[in-house]
Design goal:
Layout: E1 2-6, E2 10-17, E3 22-30, H1 31-35, H2 42-47, H3 52-57, E4 60-65, H4 69-81, E5 85-88, E6 94-95, E7 98-99, H5 111-123, E8 127-133, E9 136-142, E10 148-155, H6 157-167, H7 190-216, E11 222-227, H8 231-236, E12 243-244, H9 248-258
Parallel strand pairs: 1-4, 4-5, 8-11, 11-12
Antiparallel strand pairs: 1-2, 2-3, 6-7, 8-9, 9-10
Length: 261
């Protein structure tokens, strides 16, 4: 089955092989790549990510989206041309043993965060602090019993760079790819100051979340879980005790498919 994670800036695709219960990452498409390039249809771009043999094997996809209505509509239309209909998952008050902390308006919790909570509850047998490093960096606390305690939302690496570049007169824009050089040390140029400062900000959020966690988990043991597109670099600046789990969103989608949710 085809799995779709339509995020703020790109759509990621994976294939769930039911016979082996394995998830294979297929690739990602930046929204701007096809919204601005009228020379190729989204259908043709999708065929570069999803092979025809996989298309022949399915008529249905399972997806989660925090993208714009335009992005979702175009995905639905283009996948329909390939004979695939998408069942989009939504946030619920309770699902698969997880209780949403947003009691008054559960649907206000981002569907991507909800799928990560579902995936983490299955993967981690204990209390967890979930750090999802993407366009935004989110922190969510989840007890071993499945009770979501709420979380934080802060700008991710790209948003911080954008804010500095667009909101100041002289700092200028720094490509996010240069962040691979970021270190937890003083910068000796303006660019280094921006890159190193942003790295320290992101790492600082994780440490503050971990520091708060004992009071939320009654001083019981917990796991700091790092996931998301920026997880590799972020985890490299954290302690070895951090648990990095890739593709928790897809793992949550797989659970929904498996349980016909």
């Amino acid at each position: 089955m085809l799995l779709i994670d339509a995020g703020n800036t790109r759509c990621k695709f994976a294939w769930w092989d039911k016979s082996t219960d394995s998830i294979q990452a297929l690739g990602a498409i930046e929204h701007q790549h096809w919204l601005n390039d009228l020379s190729r249809s989204l259908k043709d771009i999708l065929l570069g990510v999803i092979n025809r043999e996989q298309i022949k094997k399915t008529t249905e996809a399972l997806g989660v989206s925090v993208a714009s209505v335009q992005v979702v509509d175009m995905l639905n239309q283009s996948l329909a041309e390939l004979g695939i209909s998408v069942r989009w998952q939504r946030t619920r008050a309770s699902q698969l043993g997880v209780e949403n902390a947003y009691k008054n308006k559960p649907e206000a919790l981002g569907a991507d965060r909800w799928l990560v909570l579902l995936g983490c509850h299955k993967a981690v047998k204990g209390h967890a602090v979930i750090i999802d490093a993407g366009t935004a960096l989110t922190v969510d606390w989840l007890t071993r019993e499945g009770q979501h305690l709420g979380g934080w939302i802060v700008p991710g690496r790209q948003l911080m760079l954008n804010a500095l570049g667009q909101g100041t007169a002289q700092l200028g824009n720094v490509p996010v790819e240069h962040s691979a050089k970021a270190k937890l040390e003083p910068g000796v140029s303006t660019r280094e100051g921006m890159l190193h400062g942003i790295e320290a900000s992101l790492v600082g959020v994780v440490y503050e979340a971990a520091k708060l966690s004992p009071s939320l988990f009654n001083d019981e043991a917990f796991t700091v879980v790092v996931t998301g597109g920026d997880s590799e670099q972020l985890a490299s600046h954290l302690s070895d005790s951090v648990c990095r789990i890739d593709d928790l969103t897809f793992k949550g989608l797989r659970l929904c498919a498996d349980n016909e949710q």
